[in-house]
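To close the section, here is one more complete example, presented without commentary so you can practise reading it yourself. The ligand is prephenic acid.
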Amino acid sequence: MADNGDNRTLDEVRVDIDSIDREIQQLISRRAKCAQRVADIKLAEVQAALEAGDTEAEVVYYRPEREAQVLQNIIDREEGPLQGETVAHIFREVMSACLALEKPLQVAYLGPEGTFTQAAAIKHFGHAAVCVPRGTIASVFAQVESGECNYGVVPVENSTEGMVSHTLDNFMDSSLKISGEVEMGIGHHLLVASHTGKGDIQRICAHQQALAQCRNWLDRNWPDIERVAVSSNGEAARMAVDMPGVAAIAGDMAAELYGLEKLAEHIEDYADNTTRFLIIGREEVPASGRDKTSIIVSSRNKPGALFTLLDPFRKAGVSLTRIDTRPSRTEKWAYVFFIEFEGHLQDENIAGIVGELEEQSILLKPLGSYPRAVL
Ligand SMILES: O=C(O)C(=O)C[C@]1(C(=O)O)C=C[C@@H](O)C=C1
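Output:
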């Protein structure tokens, strides 16, 4: 063992660990009391606004821009031996517990339990949030619109398969705003119940995106077995438990939740297979300093229309992070563009670009500015 001048025995080190843990615990309690004080201040501010005649005033306990700053500061100041991100994950949970003291959040996600969307919800909000599974992307939107849930989590794009068109379509008719994003590395496994052997498999079930993300592996290993697209990987896992001859493609959470065995691990065709999820809510989020903005824009159907829409970004030197097209549902052969770029709608240059786009387009709908994913 390397001699680093530390001659403590095992017992001595454990005594030190116990005393450090006591200190950490006391500090966490102090932090939690600060969060309780923050809640009182927020409530008093809203009461004052209501008394002053602002009938719409509402307490906003969850502050994504502040959380992003707290987590980023932790990553930036970490000096090791732990990784900045590892420490930030611990603080993610501390903040989640502090926020739950202020007000427990209800978060709707595209279920059932065991989906990557649930994992994304926990990654973003921590374990203290109450996560509520919903059967469709539309019903996640509806839960947040109606106020039954404070926030929602929906998938929006995958690095192998592209955009999740349902999510984009729902934004067209919704007044909800994007308040954050989460990225998740997606690892798929071939899962079976313990009573199902390799030779028993007659059907492989998964969400169509998962089937597509594992297409080459399936072609090589199971070319003659029927592939069945179902509503989610969680549902496929549930079917693998109940129905003889069914194998599912799903991730670790579903394997654990449904007690399934892994016949093959990491069968996704591309090793860095990543899905991006959006957090949807009813409030606009103030600038964090490291933000993204998403808009829907539709131009007149004429030559050079897309160039005209993109030129203001080029002139202002603003980077686009994503552009996608969906058919307009109101006009044949017309399209709407989903554009994402760096910056916040409150930034002067971004407000200028959006103003210019408004003049060029027949529809412009800001979907929100939100902190870039930290974890
Ligand atoms: O700063 C606030 O507004 C808080 O409510 C405190 C706190 C935290 O624990 O740091 C908790 C919840 C918010 O989402 C952001 C931060």
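Once you have examined the tokens, check your reading against these statements. Residues 93 and 126 are 5 Å apart (CA to CA). The first helix runs from residue 10 to 51.
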